[in-house]
Every structure is written in structure tokens, then in C-alpha cells.
Amino acid sequence: MTEKTPPNVRIFAVKTRFQELAQRPGGIPREIAIQQAESGIEGYKAEFVDWVERELQELTQALRKIDSAQPDMAQLDEIYARSRQLRDTGTTMGLALLTFVADNLCRVLDAIQSGATYDSEIVECHISALFLARQNAYRNIRPEQVPEMTSGFHRMLERASRSLPDKAG
Amino acid sequence: MITVPVADSKPRSLKNASVNLRDLTILIADPGTFMRRVVYGMLRGFGANRILEAGDAAGVLAALMQQKIDILILDAKLPPQNGLAVTQAIRRNTDNENRTLPILIMTSDAQQSTVKEARDAGASMVVAKPMSPTTLYDRLVWIAFDRRQFIDCPTYFGPDRRFKIEGYPTGVGRRASDKSIEVAEAVEPNLEQDDIDSLFQAARAGQSE
């Protein structure tokens, strides 16, 4: 079969080494592979709790350094980077609420980076909530199970975004 | 120009397909140390035994220079620029033997614009963070059995950006804005972006499959 293609377009088949080897027989069956991966992650949980604790301490330190009147973008970047890491790993490690709060904080910081006014209380409130969300009592609680809390965070995000240049006008 | 047809174009279900990751060299690139650890743990569980890690773009490029990498699992915001710039650099470098390397982009920002940028940079697949072992496994299966052709044209080098639905929706769909000069004519129905967005939203809320 030959398709008509423009003269400056080349279309070609590729079979990568990944595809060749990944399709070999003898791989671990899907269900077992997933179970093994879940067990592997389970083994990291104690380490994760310690890591989250350290990240939150670092977040608190970073927050203290910020001058509310004139926040330094590099310092906000540090908070952003740490929040992203918490967001990216929380749910996988069984702390969905931690991911939710960290995600909301990332959105608040996105708004600030886009020109919204920095409100230290909103950021502080998120960090306090992260301390709460890391506790064992909150493990396996999903955001939809605490609608009052999630709507409060959504309102904070709304408040943070209100001063965005395109919305202020 | 020559068009090489795909040998077997019949749709097949990938629902219970498995992959053999033994002896494949997998590079995980993410600035987060714990994120890398989590992905590493998942891959070990899947049977991978050659896993490398990088925390920034320089680490990725160095690893690609030093050895043959079979698949790159790359964060969309990898510093200093971002993972999409790294993807584009790999795809556009005509001297790079890793040019057709499968690249799985991980993103915590599942906005349509990010997905579109990843696709246009030449990503093989996009997966939303946080992700479960099931989500990662199924994307690897998808890439392993992906029969898309590559497109080489002045504005793009990478996998054909039109996706086929084969078994389950796992990736980036075709957009109305796709230019046929870049992707050639559509031959089969493709995944709608709404499906991807709902998948991404579910993953973000921790409801991954």
C-alpha cells in the first residue's frame, strides 16, 4: 500500500529495541507485575513519611524567608518545587489528601507567578494543612470524603486568583 | 516519498498484555528524588533490572551519550528548561542514534496545552502524575505494542500524532487542529481529547484505574 504524502514528508515504520525486547515471552504476567510493584512501593512507606516530614520542615523554613511585601520569585520557586514533589507522590503512597492540598498550593503559586498578589496567609494555611494531611489518621482519606475542606481550599484558590491581572481589569 | 505500511494493522486488545522488561535499559528523569524512587520501585516490580536515574536535562543527555537507552520516562518539567525541550532536542538531532527512542512524559500538569505540547514535541505517550503501578504498566504495554509510524517533516519529527484506539484509551488523541501535512491523512478513528482529560482528572484526584 502506498499513500499519497507531501514531497517533504517522510513516513516510516520503526520497531525500537524496547518494542522488540518488551514483546519477548517470559515477562512477568501483568497482574503479578502490578502486585509486585505495589508491594515494592508499600516497602517505601516508612521512608516516605520521614521524607514528607523533612519536606514540610523545609517548606516552613522557605516560607519564613519570604518577605510578604515583596516576595522573591526564587524563594517561591523553592516552595513550588517542594509542593510539586508532594503532589506527585502523595496519592501513589496512599496520601490522596496530601496530593490534593499540595496541588491546590501549586495552583495558588501558579496564580502568583502569573501576577496575582502574594498572600502569605493562604500559603501558610496550605502548609499547615499539609502537616495535617500527612498524619496517619488522614491516610486513605480521599478529597471527596471531606467536601467542606476541599471547598474551603477551592475558595482560597479563587481568592488567590482574584487579583490576577486579566481578572482585575 | 516512501511510505512503509505497518505490517499488522488489525486492532488488538492490550487489556491483559504483559511486557518483558528484563535487560532493557530504562532511564527515569525527574527532579524529585522520591518520585524517582517510586518509579524505580514500580519498574523493579515489573521485572526491570537495568534502571538509570537523572535529575536534570544534563543528566539525561549524558546518559544518552554514554549508552543505549531503550526507553526514557521523563518529567514534563525537568529542569533547567523542561522535559518537552529535552524531547524535542532528542527528536530533532539528526546525529542522535536515540532519535526514535520511546519517550513517556510524566506530567503533574494535565492541562490540554501541556498534553498538546508534549505530543508536538514528539512524546510517545503522556501519563499524569501521581500515577499508580497499573497506570504506568499499561502505558508501557501501550508503547511496547504501539505500531505507529514515524513522521519526518520540516516542522516535526516523531511518532504519528494520530492515535488509534486499541483495547483501552491511554493516550493523546487527534485534534481538529492537526495539520495533515504534519501527520498525513487519518486512516482510523482516534481518541477524543475529552477522554484523555477525564482520565487525567481521575488520575489527579487519585482515582487511577
Describe this structure in words.
The complex is a heterodimer of chains A (169) and B (209). Chain A is mainly alpha-helical. Chain A has a single domain, classed as Up-down Bundle (Four Helix Bundle (Hemerythrin (Met), subunit A)), CATH 1.20.120. Chain A is built from eight helices and one strand; from the N terminus they run βαααααααα. Chain A has helices spanning 17-22, 30-42, 45-65, 73-90, 96-113, 120-133, 147-162, 165-168; one strand at 10-12. In chain A, α3 packs antiparallel against α6 and α4 (73-90) runs antiparallel to α5 (96-113). The longest helix of chain A has 21 residues, at 45-65. Chain A is extended and about 60 Å long. The N and C termini of chain A lie far apart (57 Å). Chain B is an alpha/beta fold. Chain B has one domain: 3-Layer(aba) Sandwich (Rossmann fold). Chain B contains seven helices and seven strands, in the order βαβαβαβαβαββαα. Chain B has helices at residues 33-46, 57-66, 83-92, 112-121, 133-144, 180-183, 193-204; strands spanning 25-29, 50-54, 71-75, 103-107, 125-128, 150-153, 156-159. In chain B, the strands form two sheets. In chain B, strands 2-1-3-4-5 form a five-stranded parallel sheet, with helices on both faces. A two-stranded antiparallel ribbon of chain B has the order 6-7. The longest helix of chain B has 14 residues, at 33-46. Chain B starts with 24 loop residues before the first strand and ends in a 5-residue tail after the last helix. At the A-B interface, β1, α1, α2, α3 and α4 of A face α1, α5 and β6 of B. β1 (10-12) of chain A pairs antiparallel with β6 (150-153) of chain B.
Task: Please provide a brief summary of the model.
Chain A is mainly alpha-helical. Chain A is built from 8 helices and 1 strand. The longest helix of chain A has 21 residues.
Helix share, percent of chain B:
25-40%
CATH class of chain A: Mainly Alpha
* Gap from first CA to last CA of chain B: 42 Å
Shape of chain B: globular
Give the SSE order of chain B as H and E letters.
Answer: EHEHEHEHEHEEHH
| Total count of strands of chain B | 7
Number of helices of chain B: 7
Low-confidence stretches of chain B: 1-11, 164-209
CATH structural architecture of chain A: Up-down Bundle
Q: Largest sheet of chain B, if any?
A: 5 strands, parallel
